[in-house]
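Notebook, bench 3.
Goal today: get a predicted structure for Short-subunit dehydrogenase from Chryseobacterium lathyri so we can plan the truncation constructs. The sequence was checked against the plasmid map this morning, with no discrepancies at the termini. Length recorded as 241 residues. Pasting the sequence as submitted so the record is complete.
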Amino acid sequence: MIVLGSTSEVAQAFVEKALQEGEKFEKIYLFTSNKETTERFARHIDVKFLQQSEVVEIDLMKEIDYNTFDHVSSNVLFCAVGYLGEGTEEGLYDNRNTERIININYSKLVPVINYFAQKFESRRSGTIIGLSSVAGDRGRQSNFIYGSAKAAFTAYLSGLRNYLFDKKVHVLTIKPGFMATKMTEGLPLNPKLTATPRQAADCIYKAFKKQKNVAYVLPVWSIIMMIIRNIPEFIFKKLKL
């Protein structure tokens, strides 16, 4: 398995869930920009599950040498890369913040997934799991830069799923709502609408095994976002969401 964003609590919870369920991986490739933290997780799954892994350094904000990934081979790619950024008005007009949000969540990420998607296509097998966000379902003033990047990522996964369908490669889009992770630490999240990484991992694993196309981590978010998507624009633009 290839894991992009392997310091993510959700990614690590999914890896553990898959191993607990008896999934067998010759090797798990843990892609990360934080080698030290990821190596601790690699040691953890080695001790707990006797799972061999390899930590692969990658920084989406720097030029990537794809030749260093030639040896990486897998049948499952799990992408939990994400960057919320600063959502305040000051953050909105901070171009460095805006560029980082767009680059990490979409523009620098897509070529990496494409690189491995081509390998999957050539073998005519595999599953790509991408964590997008409910924020991409409709732009809202509270986080529309992040939401726009996630909307682009959702559209990319949809198109990739369509393209790879007859190549026998499945693409699963996951749409978490509020998540209790480092990325959202300190935010006032409604506990009834917030999932833990373990809850998310359970949902994602079930969707993976059932080969679903799109899955919301908490089902209530599909209802919430359906309502938000269908609010007429002349009303929606006046709302504080």
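The longest helix spans residues 144-164. DSSP finds nine helices and nine strands in the chain.
Flagging this for group meeting.
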